[in-house]
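Backbone shape codes:
***
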Amino acid sequence: MPTDHYAVLRALLRAEATRNTPKPQAKKDKPQLPRKDRERG
């Protein structure tokens, strides 16, 4: 068991900050299919 209580608190704060950090928008795994602009009628 760690004897440095502040090290434990720092680790908890670091984990909480990582958990609450907004994630960057990742590129979509599936490429978008081109739209088929066909006129119906």
Helices lie at 5-20. The two ends are 75 Å apart (CA to CA). The chain has a mean pLDDT of 78. DSSP finds one helix and no strands in the chain.
